[in-house]
Design a protein that fits this description.
This protein is mainly α. Helices cover 60% and strands 0% of the residues.
């Protein structure tokens, strides 16, 4: 979504084009400074709007981005392109990691953590298709 608002501003790859020992990109060109800044800005704002401490939102955003980078790293090692879909690998690290880190602060049980991760995955898949149909996303996944 940040690409739609900011277009090419900040579209520099986070990995600066660095290749890993397997001669594949570390994360890939779709992980950008623009996306990282957007996530880190929106996390505290969303938390505040939901009545949570902005610090919790920032922690959630940081660890969601780390989970997203981890899944991109794994996808590159598997030979998948940034645009390739990898169900669950695209969603679970991004949802589980921040919830694990903030579980106590949010008062979540282990069961609730699992339910939230599953709901995030379903919501992400549905929202991606909707945003694609509205021409706000380049791919339906």
């Amino acid at each position: 979504m940040a690409w739609w608002l900011l277009r090419e501003r900040g579209a520099w790859p986070l990995d600066a084009g660095v290749m890993f020992v397997d001669k594949r990109p570390l994360f890939g060109a779709s992980k950008t400074v623009r996306g990282l800044i957007a996530a880190l800005a929106m996390g505290p704002l969303a938390a505040w709007l939901l009545g949570l401490a902005p610090e919790i939102g920032l922690r959630l955003a940081v660890f969601a981005m780390l989970g997203d980078l981890a899944s991109s790293f794994v996808k590159r090692r598997l030979g998948l392109r940034p645009s390739d879909r990898a169900r669950l690998l695209d969603q679970l690290p991004e949802s589980l990691l921040p919830l694990l880190v903030t579980r106590t602060a949010l008062g979540l049980s282990w069961g609730e953590l699992i339910v939230v991760s599953v709901l995030f995955t379903v919501f992400d898949l549905m929202l991606s298709r909707l945003l694609f149909r509205l021409h706000l996303r380049k791919r339906p996944y």
